Amino acid sequence: FTILGTQVHNSSNYPEALKKVWPAIADIHANTVEVPVAWEQVEPVEGRFDFSFVDTLVKQARENKVRVVLLWFGTWKNTSPQYTPAWVKFDNQRFPRMVDQDGKNSYCLSPLGEETLKADRKAFTALMAHLKKIDEKQRTVLMVQVENEVGTFGLVRDFGKRAQALFEQDVPPAVLARKKAPVPGAAKGNWRAVYGDYADEYFHAWAKARYIGEIAKAGRAVYDLPMYVNNALRDPLEQPPKPWNKDFASGGPTYDVIDIYKASAPAIDIVGPDIYNPESAKLNANLDKFKRPDNALFVPEIGNAELYARYLYPILGRGAIGVSPFGVDYFDYANYPLGAKTNDKATLEPFAKVFAAFRPMQRQWAQWAFDGRTYGVAEPDDHADQHVAMKGWKAHVTFGQWQFGEREWPGNQKEAPPHAAKLLGGVSIAQIGDDEFLLVGQQARVRIDDVEGSGRVLIESAEEGRYDTKGKWVM
Question: What is the pLDDT of residue 455?
Fold first, then answer.
């Protein structure tokens, strides 16, 4: 199953709001919708649970023939506790905040608050038990995101008494086994001794991951669905990554601490990047860093501006299990500059074209991707040619050309095609046989040659077609 997904806006998580969700899902040709379930929504009074919205969501998703990914907005939603119940928000004694170096409370709940963990875990476990009750047979809900972009902006870690005591203890062996020390000769020791200038952010990543891992473990013990975490990204082009300097959300599962999350939260299957930077170099770098043998590529959020639509091709081409543009519903709200300035059917059209092509073959594409047969590129910011190495073959992809002839031809040099100045091109390639390929793309020209680049390759046959709703190839 390939998740051709969408994520609704953060507040589109109540029954009346769903009326503006389903038409958008249909227009974009998605097969999955990501929807938040807030802690304050299901447990407004401690110990009293209300899952009526979950029931409504699952029922309507079935009626609209789409799958669901639930987003648990619990202790953290982009650092903030804004989706926690009031009885959590306003009880700092029981549910402590992070403390800065001067002893002042942060707005972020501490990952070392035992009562906070206990309460969040209880609510999440109740949610998973309810999901099992209503959905175990039909499996409308595919997986669950635990918390949301948990990194902390503005503060590198908790400096409270308990946090400081743990910081001065030895790094847990499981973490040290996966995240090697940058300090020469530091085989063991406390966080500062082992990780030097990176100690604060690595400690915070461990604290957050351990907390999330406990919640996920408890939830899966009740109902074993796949679980993942998402994150606000740091600059992937900064190499080697520098220590935190208020320039990214500390403690979140950024690419450089994936190993800490894997060691500390084994109940979490995937760490996924939320992509809101349209620079092509950063997009490619992030895909490279999050696709690992121990981490399936999944993009739970990507901007819904037209610039991002072409990136669906390299994301799916690199074997991602799915991708979801953010903010897909028909509310009168747009999250520019992270996404498009508008929020209507025309906004969705660039993504709809791609999803419409992939949806009838999404199961077959998932198998090809699992077998390592898929590739993909998007038109880079400088419109440069792209080269794709495949098994026994290579592809040369160019952009901004007329449909007929070569760009070097005198006639073609006189005038560029209307789309040449825009960033629209992209292609996904599946090598479905030794000498057979399936191409899905737009505003791109693909030449397939042998690995030697002899230029003597002949095409036996070429078919232009599509997959129908039953997954059958038709011309």
Answer: 80
